[in-house]
Amino acid sequence: MSPIANLQTVTLGPDGLVVPALGVGTWAWGDSLFWDYGKAYSDSDLHAAFAAALDAGLTLFDTAEIYGFGQSEKLIGRFMQQRPQQVTQNAVVATKYFPLPWRFSKQSVADALSASLDRLQVASVALYQVHWPLDFLLSQKDLMLALGAEVKRGRIGAVGVSNYSAQQMRDAHRSLAEQGVPLAANQVQYSLLNRKPETNGIIATARELGVTILAYSPLAQGLLTGKYTPESNLKPAGARWLDPRFSQGGLTKLMPVIQALQEIGERRERTPAQVALNWLVCQGNVLPIPGAKNARQAAQNAGALGWELSSDEKARLSQLTQAYC
Ligand SMILES: NC(=O)c1ccc[n+]([C@@H]2O[C@H](COP(=O)([O-])OP(=O)(O)OC[C@H]3O[C@@H](n4cnc5c(N)ncnc54)[C@H](OP(=O)(O)O)[C@@H]3O)[C@@H](O)[C@H]2O)c1
């Protein structure tokens, strides 16, 4: 696949790195607990997804130390080694630190980052995010001090947080600003089926502070692709069957949204997933990171960039999904 033309970009925080306005989520890469890695898809599918994403111009890969207990980072590291250097030098890795209860010193942040860099086989990552706003013995203030130190040390391009409320984002922003380091990103769940960030102050605060929103589960874990319908009898792989939205009743309730995505998509020769992702990109300052398990999904998701829904189409989708605000 050739690179998508005119793809939209965002910066990771104020004056930060410019990246395509869509990334690749890699929670499923190596995760057999939730996603059925090794049964529903294999390493060669994931390698093909990695290659297809880069070929299409998607360069940002979002991972975490806990995804597959390090396996996601290891796979990305291996895939980067296996591609020609002139291709992978554009790859931008965003990984995450998990504030586990026994990580009580600033040194534990440095150690966790060292382990991630080893698995990824790189000297630095573009974005290092705190996975959840958990406070045990290491305070948020000390955590931000440890992260700021890593920026100065050159092992982190930028600091991000994830699942932080508007107030928690403000506090992190202030602690970092005291060290002259910007808060680059807050990664939160955001999609047409979860629009809470628009009403709980996260989007507005992020805009005010110059923080970029990374939208996770932007396809509502596959629901917005339109392939799961009450008639399709398609069972989602992994633990998703526990989510009532994948039940017969749940899918029936979603049909008006799926039908609108299909109608808009048909007129524009786009898939429902591309329409749903484009709606997020159109919000501005938002970088969706859809998960992709194979080359077809990665290439298709990349096709959410390079074009824009009309104001009427955006308004129709926003109105239809008002209940998810
Ligand atoms: N910070 C956090 O706490 C947090 C939490 C969750 C996720 N995340 C990040 O966000 C990323 C994305 O979220 P997510 O994986 O939960 O959900 P998602 O991106 O909404 O959905 C991903 C799933 O949808 C299906 N899919 C994707 N593209 C498709 C396409 N073009 N056509 C058909 N099916 C397609 C695939 O599953 P099937 O083919 O099996 O249906 C895929 O695994 C994660 O990988 C991770 O990097 C972060």
Task: Please describe what this structure looks like.
This protein has 325 residues and is an alpha/beta fold. It has a single domain, classed as NADP-dependent oxidoreductase domain (TIM Barrel), CATH 3.20.20. Helices cover 41% and strands 14% of the residues. The protein has twelve helices and ten strands. The protein has helices spanning 43-56, 71-82, 85-88, 106-120, 140-153, 166-177, 196-199, 202-209, 248-268, 272-282, 295-302, 311-320, and strands spanning 9-11, 18-20, 24-25, 60-62, 92-97, 125-130, 156-162, 183-189, 212-216, 286-288. The strands form two sheets. An eight-stranded parallel β-sheet has the order 3-4-5-6-7-8-9-10. A two-stranded antiparallel sheet has the order 1-2. Helix 5 (140-153) crosses helix 6. It binds NADP nicotinamide-adenine-dinucleotide phosphate (NAP). NADP nicotinamide-adenine-dinucleotide phosphate binds next to helix 11.
Structural topology:
Elements: E1 9-11, E2 18-20, E3 24-25, H1 43-56, E4 60-62, H2 71-82, H3 85-88, E5 92-97, H4 106-120, E6 125-130, H5 140-153, E7 156-162, H6 166-177, E8 183-189, H7 196-199, H8 202-209, E9 212-216, H9 248-268, H10 272-282, E10 286-288, H11 295-302, H12 311-320
Helix pairs in contact: 1-11, 2-4, 4-5, 5-6, 6-8, 9-10, 9-12
The chain binds NADP nicotinamide-adenine-dinucleotide phosphate (NAP).
NADP nicotinamide-adenine-dinucleotide phosphate binds at residues 25-28, 62, 131, 162-163, 187, 216-222, 225, 227, 236-237, 273, 289-293, 297, 300-301.
What descriptive keywords fit this protein?
globular; binds NADP nicotinamide-adenine-dinucleotide phosphate; alpha/beta; 325 residues; 8-stranded parallel beta sheet; TIM Barrel
